[in-house]
Design brief:
This protein is mainly β. The chain has one domain: Neuraminidase (6 Propeller). The chain contains 2 helices and 35 strands. Strands 6, 7, 8, 9, 10 and 11 form a 6-stranded antiparallel beta sheet that branches. Strands 16, 17, 18, 19 and 20 form a 5-stranded antiparallel beta sheet that branches. The longest helix is centred in the N-terminal third of the chain and has 5 residues, at 96-100. The relative contact order is 0.16.
Length: 448
């Protein structure tokens, strides 16, 4: 049965347990590790940070504001840039030459509670798929590594109500067998990964609602038993099932919702371990919805965070904040665009010149995106639909584009996984990856 903790002014250090319990109390600590009023957790592990299906009929951009373009390269047979016409001279598209010579890989890992499938495309070639042992009870985390690509996947719901964490890698075009992290590494929603130098850093929330850190050092994952904790201060914890992660220089930065409903950022340094968490503004996040964070390349800001506001605060509109690279301080949160809202966790990918793109699942279950531009002053484009039809079951997964494209997206759409590329402010019509069916989640990653 649930365990209660009496209200105290300073929380004692917690240990991970496999039984549900209740946190009680309302006082936070000066060091920020308790993150405001302590939440009450009833032990339920149902649902996910992406929420349940909601179909309120509300889109995120009027149809006349944007369109999905069926451009050359928009179907599975046109990914080489050829529009299918025998009269194509080869120079009709500015990107034809670059596309033809492109060898950059695009990798997708998709699944559901009963399936797990990996897919890879080299350059503009067709995707090849490989069925893997196991399943994905939550969305996988996938990133390029020094040896290829590596993923963390929560599989096999355990006695504590979480999914045991497994690592699985791709070398060349072949996926390895998933390997358990071991120990008690178990997550109650999607883990997160960021590449930091030659290592990969992961973070997850366990069934005890405590944050843990895992590390991949080139050949295998450790046991994921490192607590997100500063010295002897209480271990970081929270009510939301997932965190987000990004890496900048020698620093891993994670963002998550604190017990007071506000957003926090916490750094892990290669030479100093975990640092005290910092609250980003005073916004209240949408219930059980994780923020998204990405490292920017170029400009005066090194990190961008985007999140959905609580319905009681601003009807689930998307807000954002930037971290100044020189001072490591966060800006006051601001609205992205007045028509950008979601009930679910968004996703982010970096683009050139300090730009980024955010994707989200709309209230009508269609995918939307908009572009961030840092100069001459931070600004967001009008939201555009990523697909004209097809209900998605999780947030779009985004990655930096290759082969002349600025971004690429994987969409889990009614069991299929569809791929779309983005350039010049428009998405091409998504096309399915042959060989993937029954998928609830999809993750995508690229490498130059």
């Amino acid at each position: 049965m649930p365990r209660s903790v009496a209200p105290v002014m300073v929380l004692l250090a917690f240990v991970a347990v496999s039984v549900p319990f209740v946190f009680a109390g309302c006082a936070g600590a000066e060091n920020g590790e308790t993150h405001g009023p302590v939440f009450v957790f009833d032990g339920s592990t149902s649902g996910s940070s992406d929420g349940g299906a909601v179909n309120d009929g509300n889109g995120n951009a009027p149809p006349n504001e944007a369109s999905v373009t069926d451009a050359p390269g928009s179907d599975a047979n046109e990914r080489n840039g050829d529009d299918g016409s025998s009269s194509d001279a080869g120079a009709s598209d500015a990107s034809d030459g670059a596309t033809a010579n492109c060898t950059s890989p695009t990798v997708v890992l998709a699944g559901s509670g009963s399936t797990l499938v990996g897919a890879v495309s080299i350059g503009a070639g067709a995707f090849t798929t490989q069925s893997l042992t196991g399943s994905a009870v939550y969305g996988p985390a996938l990133v390029a590594s020094s040896n290829g690509f590596e993923a963390l996947v929560a599989m096999n719901v355990d006695a504590g109500g979480g999914g045991a964490l497994y690592g699985v890698g791709l070398s060349g075009t072949t996926w390895g067998s998933p390997a358990a992290l071991g120990g008690s590494a178990s997550a109650i929603d999607a883990p997160a990964i960021a590449a930091l130098g030659t290592t990969l850093q992961g973070v997850y929330l366990d069934p005890g609602h405590l944050y843990f850190h895992a590390q991949f050092s080139g050949t295998s994952w450790d046991t994921g038993a490192d607590p997100v904790q500063v010295g002897t201060a209480p271990q970081s914890f929270g009510p939301v099932r997932a965190a987000a992660a990004a890496a900048s220089s020698t620093e891993l930065v994670i963002t998550y919702e604190g017990n007071d409903g506000h957003i926090y950022a916490q750094s892990w340094l290669t030479t100093g371990g975990w640092q005290t968490a910092v609250k980003i503004g005073d916004d209240t996040l949408a219930t059980n919805t994780a923020p998204a964070i990405v490292a920017l390349s170029g400009g005066t800001s090194d990190l961008l965070v985007v999140y959905a506001l609580a319905s009681t605060q601003a009807t689930n509109y998307l807000n954002y904040a930037l971290r100044t690279a020189s001072t490591k301080t966060w800006s006051t949160p601001a609205a992205t665009n007045g028509t950008a809202y979601t009930l679910y966790a968004p996703s982010l990918a970096p683009m050139s010149g300090g730009r980024a793109i955010v994707g989200w699942r709309g209230g009508n279950n269609l995918p939307y995106s908009m572009e961030f531009t840092p100069s001459p002053s931070p600004a967001w484009s009008v939201p555009v639909p990523m697909a004209a039809s097809g209900n998605i079951t999780s947030a779009p997964s985004l990655a930096t584009g290759t082969c002349g494209n600025e971004a690429v997206a994987a969409l889990a759409t009614e069991g299929a996984v569809t791929i779309s590329t983005y350039a010049s402010g428009a998405w091409v019509t998504p096309t399915p990856i042959t060989g993937i069916s029954g998928a609830s989640f999809a993750a995508i990653a690229t490498s130059p």
